[in-house]
């Protein structure tokens, strides 16, 4: 069942989203060669607490950290740790803010120092893919319209779309219906209605879309070791069109 939110509930989620967006803006300033992903994680957790919020990912299905920090060939759910970011890396920071029981979810990929043209292309196309999906998040469209637009654009740019991890409804729970794949046929899936809140969070790879899991049970990597990027926003479907609740 897809839970429809009232305007008031969406307003709660927007406030969570504002904290999350502000946290990403601070992280963008911190990212440089020499910083560890653990330092970023600790900053994010402290930032949320300072703003009266909590990191919803910590403890979620046993996930141990406030953020996911996914470097280079890691697609998602990388553990923050002692890894020192170096010039040319790309890193995706993903987090979910809980403010008074209402959630917002946003991931962002960052370039560390100077990255290769191939890496920059991956970052640019993945971010564009997110916004192409958001454009179609309007009342009356179907989830498949979003999915298909992202896949057609990404593959047209020579990149592949991760299949195993997808977007989702969100509200008082991190993962609600509907599922939001970033690939597949148009005109299929649930029809979008006013008051739905979903994430769109394409993960694109330079090589194969296939992935493998590290022995830690969380860290998902590209099977061929190629780079992967991700951008994610939380979106409310309204009569006036899509509203990005995590806009930076
Ligand atoms: N934020 C992720 C998402 O987009 C979920 C991360 S899984 C967790 O769905 F275990 F780290 F929470
Ligand atoms: Co998400």
UniProtKB/TrEMBL annotation:
Top-level division of the source organism's lineage: Bacteria
Any GO BP annotation: proteolysis
Give the cofactor note text: Binds 2 divalent metal cations per subunit. Has a high-affinity and a low affinity metal-binding site. The true nature of the physiological cofactor is under debate. The enzyme is active with cobalt, zinc, manganese or divalent iron ions. Most likely, methionine aminopeptidases function as mononuclear Fe(2+)-metalloproteases under physiological conditions, and the catalytically relevant metal-binding site has been assigned to the histidine-containing high-affinity site.
Instruction: Give yes or no: UniProt keyword Metal-binding.
Output: yes
Any one of the GO CC terms: cytosol
The Enzyme Commission number assigned here is 3.4.11.18
Name it: Methionine aminopeptidase
Q: Which organism is it from?
A: Paenibacillus barcinonensis
Whichever gene encodes this chain, its name is map
